[in-house]
Amino acid sequence: MTHIFADLHNHTTASDGDFSPGDLVALAAGMGIKVLGVTDHDTLDGLAPALDAGKLEGVDVFPGVEVSVRFKREFFTGTLHVLTYFSSGLLTDSGFVTRFKTLLAQGRGQGLVRARIEKINEVFGPGGESPLLSRNLVFEDIAAYSDNASRRHFAMALDEKLGISDKETINRIIGNDSPAYLPSGIDLEQVKGFLETEPVIAVLAHPAAGSFPGEGHYKEVLPPVETVTRLLPELLDAGVKGIEVHYPGHAPEHKALLLSWAQKYDLLVTGGSDCHDNANRPLGVTGADEQEFNRLTQEVLCVEKKSK
């Protein structure tokens, strides 16, 4: 069994993961993972309990948020994800927490959930343009799973509430190419402003997973690497300083491409399992080595020092 030093990209029940923050940390401890990144989608809520659990379990919990960034370009309408890492001490800074939560609230939440439900019903409801649902979705169908609902929760509701289990049909309803698709996220300019003023380090998450050669979640919700390549100059200009190279959905040839980007643009190299559950997207699949993690922590400490 390969031991992962730093698994820097994982989710808890604070967003769309199956494990509570404490359970995720305990699982990491049992696997011998030294550093665990907790990076829920667009929320800080899982970080405090994860840090508390880390002290008990002897795991260094490295805090972050996977921020959804919305794009509307001629060649791409959708969302990319940026992992933002920062010092755990900032969670006691009420000003930082308030500013971060204010930013995140603009890209997700009940407003987006209700808008997505309305659009899905308009297109795929019983009276819609392309009827696929036995009844209209309602807000309670989604809210039953999470206060911070993602497309994973929509897929669960379609399966468990409306009896649609076929992956192709689910993807037709909520995938990137669906006529009902509404991307989550914050405009890149808003993210750029935050990165310019706050002591965080931004890392582009799973840049090549949309070109994963097999079947699965990655290709359904992420753009191909060719699209990400076209967006890369904008992301670097916005303040992205690193790239997630080590990732379960990256084929060897794409990993080599991303390493070439890191060398060309002097980017930090990170990695993580993107754990959501214990079956399809488990913990401890991949991560950053000690040298890569140390470079990341040095950059985090550097930007924090400059901000004081």
Automatic annotation (TrEMBL):
Organism lineage string: Bacteria, Pseudomonadati, Thermodesulfobacteriota, Desulfobacteria, Desulfobacterales
Gene Ontology MF terms: 5'-3' DNA exonuclease activity; 5'-3' RNA exonuclease activity
InterPro entries: PHP_dom (IPR004013), PHP_domain (IPR052018), Pol/His_phosphatase_N (IPR003141), Pol/histidinol_Pase-like (IPR016195)
Gene3D superfamilies, sorted: 1.10.150.650, Metal-dependent hydrolases
Highest rank taxon of the organism: Bacteria
Record domain Polymerase/histidinol phosphatase N-terminal: where: 6-71
Native species: Desulfobacter latus
CDD domains named in the record: PHP_HisPPase_AMP
Any Pfam family the entry gives: PHP
SMART domains, A to Z: POLIIIAc
Name by which UniProt lists this protein: PHP domain-containing protein
